[in-house]
Amino acid sequence: MDSQIHTVYTQDRELSWLRFNQRVLEEAMDESVPLIERLKFAAIFSDNLDEFFMIRVGSLHDMSLLKQTHIDNKTGKTPSEQLADIFQALIPLYEQRDRVLRELETRCRACNICRLGFDELDERAKKQVLYWFESEARAILSPQIVDLHNPFPHLPNKGLNIILSLKRDGKTLLGILPVPDSLPPFLRLAEGGIHYILTQDVLLALADQVFDQYTVEEKAIVCVTRNADIAPEDEAYDVEMDFRQHMRKIVKKRTRLAPVRLEVQGQLAEKTVQDLCRRLSLAPEQVFNTEFPIHLNYLFSLGDLLPKESVAALCDPPYTPRFSPALAKPERILPQLERQDILLFYPYESMEPFLRLLTESAADPGVLSIKITIYRLAARSRLAEALCAAAENGKQVVVLMELRARFDEQNNIQWAERLEEAGCTILYGFEGIKVHSKVCLITRREHGKIRYYTQVGTGNYNEKTARQYTDLCLITANQAIGADAALLFQNMATGNLNGSYRRLLVSPFALRNRVCACIDREIEKGEDGYIFLKLNSLTDRTMIDKLAQASQAGVEVVMNIRGICCLLPGIQGLTDHIRVFSIVGRYLEHSRIYCFGRDGDAQLYISSADFMTRNTERRVEVACPVLDGRARARVFHIIRQLQKDNVKARELGPDGTWRRKKDAGPPFHCQQAFQLEEYRIERPQKPLGNTLPGWIFSRFFGIFRRRRE
């Protein structure tokens, strides 16, 4: 296809991501969402934006400095042009953020949840704040003056600092008062309701006392965001150095990389802002002003302060993931796995069956080894403890620990050390290639023969996020899949990334080609072809063009993409058979599903891989076929329910904007429906009637069903 045609049905990935994050902010505007949850969505929006600057803007900034010009293959723009578009698109987003927070704080005050400014404090509250300032805060403050003898200091990434314009003896100086991380984010006031004042606002109000030898002419809170896009393989690496030590150095270096954004809360004179830009090597368009607090993480803890009677009105109703209704709770997992594959659907079902399988395997005399790839773990992890127990019980435990999981490096380093101490064999992956797959292989000797039990997931082995993200976990006794998994671990242990597998699709060498072959199979069917994809992001140029080719052949293509989608659907003659929708709700949509064909003819996979170039070319990813009849029926049901959503779903238009679905009919919210389904499945079936035959039939059917399951 001609390169000019390419840009007709593709869009900039960064602007697409910003539109996704805008949908997160729209959840904070949704009247149907409880107030405290709306506050959390505003905080998530800000956290997302922080990471976007640290990674994506940081990466583009680095590329803009290279001598060789990089041209984006979806827009034809240079990194500098992309950055200009990003900075322009962010101006209305910051304004929208302030409007949303203004409205939410007004609503909070009506519920007696008040963030107070220092000037709003009554005498009792002011006395409490002043006492806290003098007794706890003042001693750990580190005020600084910038002059000929004291150079401008390093401002750490995402640290809050109070900037002051000071005057003494006719000279104007710059003052800096860092807000210490060791102080709590807010001080709760001894009044009725939930009244509090942010620590930063206390220090801002009392900064005049800290710099009491000067006249304070202006002051505001600022925050510098720094580039955090470090590639460990690009850094000098001593071969004698332990890789964990190398990663510690990389994590430490992240705090000192080049600034990419300056946020200002409050009013600073243009001259002061220009001075800060000069010192930080920032352009004016990299400065963003906000009326409300820059850091909003304190909002996540407000719900914990609510009285019980307020929780029901202001928070989402609590939901406890259910033990899979397809399993008999008292029975060991392994015998049930022999009868049928197990498909767990987080967060509606708990991770408990998989954790129990590992715990049982750790003590099972027949289990020879447990091998697993780990990308992210919870700070407290039952899974990791089960692996330690298995190693201590003499099992061979091999853990491929990805230390380069961004922002989780330190946690993974600590777990790697703990696992190694317990006797696990720790592998660290490959230079330039991250291991992002979620595969666990249990090898057992049964009646003198080797048997494999394989788990493949779409999400991390993290008990915390398994309660917040929608993910699928397939556990199977299929020996062909197990043999592929065994070969995968052997290949990774020997550095062979170009292995050949019968059932599994594995990147970086085969997944994209085999997915394209599946798409070609549907293209051959023409208008009878069908493709459904559930992804977090779609940016891979080859995949985009192949899907456009399918559309041009008349194949129906439906995609549920949560975040970035660089393909524009609905363009006449090019992508008019493609429909893209997105769901942003209480739970983060994280599972990946590939479906090629309809019903029994369909090739159905779950996967750890999005269709992004990093996943297809620079990561070890795995897609696993769903072969068991019950598991397939469950995945097809999930696909249907996702497509029915007309409450949280938005559809992508050919202009790159998202709009509410126009579906008529009763409101349908798939995440709520999934919750209710699990709730109903766990409870006994109602009798057919009050008659004795009806009761007997129900009892018999229930017993028969449990025996089969």
Annotate the secondary structure layout.
Elements: H1 3-6, H2 13-27, H3 35-64, H4 79-110, E1 113-115, H5 123-137, E2 144-146, E3 160-168, E4 171-178, E5 186-188, E6 194-198, H6 199-210, E7 215-226, H7 243-254, E8 259-265, H8 270-280, E9 287-290, H9 308-314, H10 333-339, E10 342-346, H11 352-363, E11 367-374, H12 382-392, E12 396-401, H13 409-421, E13 425-427, E14 434-435, E15 439-446, E16 449-457, E17 469-476, H14 479-493, E18 505-507, H15 511-525, E19 530-535, H16 541-552, E20 556-561, E21 578-583, E22 588-589, E23 592-596, E24 603-607, H17 613-617, E25 619-625, H18 629-644, E26 649-652, E27 658-660, H19 670-682, H20 692-708
Parallel strand pairs: 1-6, 8-9, 11-12, 12-13, 14-25, 17-22, 19-20, 20-21
Antiparallel strand pairs: 2-4, 3-4, 3-7, 5-6, 7-8, 10-17, 11-15, 15-16, 16-17, 18-25, 19-23, 21-26, 23-24, 24-25, 26-27
Explain what you see.
By secondary structure, this protein is an alpha/beta fold. The chain has 20 helices and 27 strands. The strands form four sheets. Strands 14, 18, 19, 20, 21, 23, 24, 25, 26 and 27 form a ten-stranded mixed sheet that branches. Strands 10, 11, 12, 13, 15, 16, 17 and 22 form an eight-stranded mixed sheet that branches. Strands 2-4-3-7-8-9 form a six-stranded mixed sheet, with helices on both faces. Strand 12, helix 13 (409-421) and strand 13 form a beta-alpha-beta unit. Helix 2 packs parallel to helix 4 (79-110), helix 12 (382-392) packs parallel to helix 13 and helix 15 runs parallel beside helix 16 (541-552). Mean pLDDT is 90; it is low at 1-5, 232-240 and 681-709.
